[in-house]
Amino acid sequence: MTAHDTLAMVVGAGPAGLMAAEQLAQAGHRVVVTEANPTPARKFLMAGKSGLNLTRDEAPADFLAAYRSDRIRGIVAEFGPAEVMAFSRGLGVDLFTGSTGRVFPVGMKASPMLRAWLARLAGLGVEVRTRWRWQGFSGTSLVFDTPNGRAEGRPDVTVLALGGASWPRLGSDAAWVPWLRDKGVEVAPFRPANMGFRITWSDHMKEHFGTPVKGAALVTDRSVSRGEFVLSAAGIEGGGVYAVAADVRDGSPLALDLAPGLNTDEIARRLARSPARESLTNRLRKALRLDGVKLALLHEWARPLPTDSLALARRLKALPVPHGGPRPLAEAISSAGGVTDGSVTDDLELRALPGTFVAGEMLDWEAPTGGYLLTGCLATGRHAGLAAARRLG
């Protein structure tokens, strides 16, 4: 590729990159998308294997509160759940909303949506070049390893949508960090987000591995999660954990409320009324309807159990979770860290590299699972693509 072979280049063919490419193409510009992998959007496809959670149908204020970055919150306010649902239906994808507000394709999978999207982009003239791996800069040019050897290009605008540092086997390996830092771009260190936590279990917990914990609450200094989570040989994981993972990673103690529907006094009264001749396990099961996995967690983390009803009630409402820290970044669903707010303009243009925009998980933001991550990536891709199109004029 020679200089000015194309006007607009998008590096990275995930949801953020494809959304940026669509905005540029709709504005009438020639667009080339480069992707290091043999096929586009591998992480998007992997995320959709268990059901593609596109967004969440909830009050705008509640939705926006999930984002820790004011800048990303403002961008998502322009392209939020209603717009994501309209975009998906525009690709011929029928949707449904689950009981918790999560929005999925009727077919649950990501592949039909991706095929329709790529076909629409092709109709707009967007060219997708796979196995084009970005290798940094040569002066002001972008350098790629391609199936035909080294290639260089100097597009008029560039949108970088290379992902963060989670799931590196799918392409988000953060190899781009030193190249941007060398150009004067500040990049906050990556940390795991939406991850599980290590726990060293006693042998008697093995029978509960894979068992979901339902009807409990995980509590931190800042938030409460009523979502389910699962016990595994490595620790705890699942949506309920991911909702509080950022707080715990940043130093908040984690506690488990085994009876979130009851206050301490009511629990104590029920325990006091239960027959003293029965074992404590039976009293807990009958008075509070604690199932086997909850009882196992109580014995794992609270022995010796208090014999006083009020003291036991307090322990049930705030059972300390003795974790050993987050699981590794490579296992996390997403990452925190990336290009800092101070390194980009409101258009997501790099201050150190005019004409180069960034989108998606490259930016320093995070949000819990449940539709927030994908919506954020689509919104930032759209925002960067529109801004790049305006720069081209």
List the topology elements.
Layout (H helix, E strand, L loop, with lengths): L7 E4 L3 H12 L4 E5 L6 H6 L7 E2 L3 H5 L5 H9 L2 H10 L4 E3 L4 E4 L5 H13 L3 E4 L2 E6 L2 E6 L2 E5 L3 E4 L16 H6 L4 E7 L3 E2 L13 E2 L3 E3 L4 E2 L3 E4 L2 E3 L1 H11 L5 E3 L6 H10 L6 H9 L3 H11 L6 H9 L1 E2 L13 E6 L16 E3 L13 H21 L1
Parallel strand pairs: 1-2, 1-10, 2-6, 10-21
Antiparallel strand pairs: 3-5, 4-5, 7-8, 8-9, 11-20, 12-17, 13-16, 14-15, 14-18, 16-17, 18-19
Helix pairs in contact: 1-13, 4-13, 9-10, 9-12
Question: What's this, in brief?
Answer:
This protein is an alpha+beta fold and 393 residues long.
Describe the structure.
There is one protein chain. The chain is an alpha+beta fold and 393 residues long. The chain folds into 2 domains: 8-192 and 331-392, FAD/NAD(P)-binding domain; 197-320, no CATH class. The protein contains 13 helices and 21 strands. It has helices spanning 15-26, 42-47, 60-64, 70-78, 81-90, 111-123, 177-182, 239-249, 264-273, 280-288, 292-302, 309-317, 372-392, and strands at 8-11, 31-35, 55-56, 95-97, 102-105, 127-130, 133-138, 141-146, 149-153, 157-160, 187-193, 197-198, 212-213, 217-219, 224-225, 229-232, 235-237, 255-257, 319-320, 334-339, 356-358. Strands 6-2-1-10-21 form a 5-stranded parallel beta sheet, covered by helices on one side. The radius of gyration is 24 Å and the shape is elongated.
